[in-house]
Amino acid sequence: MRMVLLYVILATYILAVNFYAVMLLKSQRDEYGEQESKPSGDGKLIITAILGGALAIYISMFIMRYRLKNLLLMILMPVVAVLNIWFFFLAFRSGLAFFVVA
Fold first, then answer.
1. Closest to 42 in 3D by CA, of 1, 98, 7, 32
2. What is the rounded CA–CA span in Å between residue 97 and residue 102?
3. Measured between alpha carbons, how far is 28 from 19 in angstroms, rounded to an integer?
4. Cys-Cys link to 81, which of 16, 21, 55, 92 (CB 3.0-4.6 A)?
5. Contact in structure between 3 and 88 (CB atoms under 8 Å)
6. 85, 18 contact by CB (below 8 A)
7. pTM for the whole thing?
8. Residues in CB range of 71: below 8 A, 6 or more apart
């Protein structure tokens, strides 16, 4: 029963971080449209990507057509997304063994 709870918690975490990543990118796009200034907030996007939202940021960049000329984000997001997917795959495959305390 404890393992099922850990799977649910990890899946909820993945969904929450990806939802936050999409909303963060959308809010930055909306803010940029109002101010007509240079976009900022690469740090927030990078931290969110490292925490698990890289794939959502990368896909949202293309859907919203926003920040596509930022070379750092266009190179970093796919690399971090692959690392995120690999980590989450290992976490589910191992049965979350590194979270379970005997």
1. 32
2. 10
3. 14
4. 55
5. no
6. no
7. 0.85
8. none
